[in-house]
Amino acid sequence: MVLDVSTAAGAMTGDRYIESLRDNREVWLDGERVPSVPDHPAFRGMVNELARIYDLQDSDEFRDQMTFVSPETGNRCSYSWLLPRSSEDLKLKRRNSEIWNEQSWGQLGRSPDILAPHITALYAIRDSLGSVKHPRCAFGENIANYHRYCQENDLFLTHALGDPQVDRSQQPQNEQRNIIEEELALHVVEETSEGVIITGAKQLATAAPISNECYVSLSATFLRRSDPKCVLAFSIPTNSPGMKILCREPVSYGYGGFGHPLGLNYDEQDAMLFFEEVLVPWDRIFMLYDSSPLLAQLTRRAYFQGWPNLVRIHHRMQLMTAVATLIAEAIGVIEYREVSAKLGEMATCTEMWRHSMDGIEHNAFLTDDGLMSLGDMNAMNIFFSQMSSRMVELLREIAGSGIIMQPSEKDLANPDLRGYLDKYMRGKGVDVEYKSRLFRLAHDLAVSSFGMRQEIYEYWHGGDPNRNRINLLRNYDQDGVTERIKDMLSRPLANEG
Question: What is the SS3 assignment for 378?
């Protein structure tokens, strides 16, 4: 069965996105079921901000930078879903990612632009997926049809890859899981004429409550299974019957004013997914019982998942560097040698990241399947999992104790306090309100619950950094240099004198 696009509306709009969330999805927050996600104060800021950016896709300023005309339907479709076939296509996709991240200050690890490259990467291995046979469906055709369906409807996807964090002692890292955890790991219960019935749980599905669909698969750590019933990849609507979404505590919920300028608008939420006999239709399954195509993809020389994350990281680094610079100016320390050196370190990291992005774009190549891939970016992903915390550390050091103690919006409005605030809490050439708002922005980046959540996300978003370092080492070609060293060591020492 082919997913129907006859009524697809093309690039998402703000109103359409908001209405798409009113679908009776089962979302739980703090022990209560959420009756309407877009109207709940824990989600409203994020939903409205995404709706605002979605509307840019149909604006005179950004329409041609964010969308293209589908040759099949004539719909305007997001560049997020474009299958890149030339260097120019990669540049167009980069610009689209830049707009998403400029608008969201690089704070969205799971924006609507993020998961489209994952589906593109699966599309690129559709023949390999199709080589695994099943009498009820063709996995390669399924992913091709699903990409088309997502493109023509501009769906917002999230993903869930990891097992519940209950007891992982039975699985040494990078080795095959030897025990069967049917009650915990997501697994197939039975096959029916309509699809497979699944039960189990997944973590961590960032943005699940505000997404249209969830792509569920296995991370690199969990791909090697001893029980084939736990090997599957699929995508289903967020409101699928039997799927419960449990949200964490909101990081800025309940605080008003300018105290949480990022947290109020960019808390994209993280969730556990519980599946209780959920039906996954045959046309939405991309892998079943055999993980060999995805295992082969891990060593495949192709990189389709680049721009959304790479551009987001660049804008996040730019924001932290700029905030730190403005703070140094606001308290008169920018000429201090140690402060300038720290700002220079932040600028160095930011610039090196930009050079690296230009480098992987320069090293782009055409793959055997006819799609353009960016150059190798494995080391970049590992690098930022290390450098993000350093950037936050530098911001804290430059801001000093002021990052903790600043008046609130209500403090500033109180006439009994305002005179003291104007006198004792102003900055160098700036009034207390500007200084307070600037420092509260820094607090949201580096100290608040939102800032700490962002740091944890940045560390883990590319998977286990230690595993990634080990895999990079195993694939790092040192043969030329090591052979030269061995040759040098094999020669007799020169006679002295």
Answer: helix
The pLDDT value recorded for residue 256 is 54
User: Using an 8 Å Cβ cutoff, are 58 and 52 in contact?
Assistant: no
Sorted by sequence, the CB contacts under 8 Å of residue 32 that are 6+ apart come out as: none
Instruction: Report which of 279, 185, 264 is spatially closest to residue 223, judged by C-alpha positions.
Output: 185
The CATH 1.20.140.10 portion of the chain extends over: 307-482
Provide the CA 97 distance to its chain's centre, in angstroms: 12
Number of H-type helices and E-type strands within the chain: 18, 14
**Residue pLDDT, tens place only, 467-495:** 889 988 988 999 999 999 999 999 998 76
Residue range 58-63: average pLDDT?
A: 97
Which sign, positive or negative, has the C-alpha torsion 395, 399, 405, 411? negative
CA distances to 383, 426, 438 from 411, in Å: 41, 14, 16
**Residue 175 has what pLDDT?**
47
> How much of the chain exceeds pLDDT 90, in percent?
79
**Residue 30 DSSP label:** T
State the span(s) of the chain assigned CATH 2.40.110.10: 14-298
pLDDT given for residue 38 in this prediction: 97
CATH of 14-298, one of 3.40.190.10, 2.40.110.10, 1.50.10.10, 3.40.50.2300: 2.40.110.10
Residues 248-258: pLDDT tens digits? 999 876 555 67
Q: How far apart are CA 197 and CA 430, in angstroms?
A: 62
CATH of domain 307-482: 1.20.140.10
